[in-house]
# Entry
Amino acid sequence: MKTAIVVHGGAWAIPDALAEASVAGVKAVVRAGDAVLKNGGSALDAVEKAVSALEDDPVFDAGHGAVLNTDGEVELDSIIMDGKTLATGAVSSVRNIANPVSLARAVMEKTEHVMLTDRGANMFAERIGFPAAHDLVTELERKEWEHYKKYVIGVKELFNSQWGHDTVGAVALDSFGNVACATSTGGIRNKMVGRVGDSPIIGSGGYADNRSGAVSCTGHGESILKVTLARLILFHMEQGKSAVVAADTSLQYMGERVQGGGGAIVVSPTGDWAARFTTPRMAWASVKGDVLCYGLNSDEEFKETLK
# Structure
């Protein structure tokens, strides 16, 4: 069966200064995920590989390069889901963890729970020997945080500006016909301590089911939560809509119903895929067969043939 993988680096008003690095980042990462699939690896392995690479890239708001909360701390959220069994692992408000997506997978595979949060998630990480990281804050983010601390700006205003910053994610279909999703984020700058958005919430930040497909969402977290965006997109696919139409319909509904902007990447069990967004920009890339597609601005799609 032909494999497929799609990744995103977050839907927001990406400034020109970050545009080139954002596109280069998702293109490199989608190739790494594709290599896992082409070598017979699982969709689950591919999305974890892709998302952990995005977490390691300081251009993106996840892991290294994550934004700071009102207290100037990094709190990270992530989810991973296996479409074959609906097994899911998630973590929220974790600190000093460079790759929350891998910790989320450990929750899925080593506990009987779906989500661990805050202190409990960090205690679990310590217990299983998961490495702690104390270098997640970039100099740029510390400066931005100091700058915005001087202004009383609401989270939604920040999101709608060029300082929104956002989430990373991946969806994949492997050669066995299984789908998987993973999503990871540092949230929104200046969020309240303990604030959790859509990213680690099953059915909102991501969902995967071999019967319908896999989705990873990005955008204004509170809006995505209110419409359970990932599950809504798959509902439309279950009604027979294509990945593109299902994503567009759901994002349009979110805009009309709760005035929220965002984006989503989708893959179906047959390899039909989409990368759609209502924000000014979203860096995304996909590989299906030997064709790599990528884009940044709306209705933009560039193609390259992989050697």
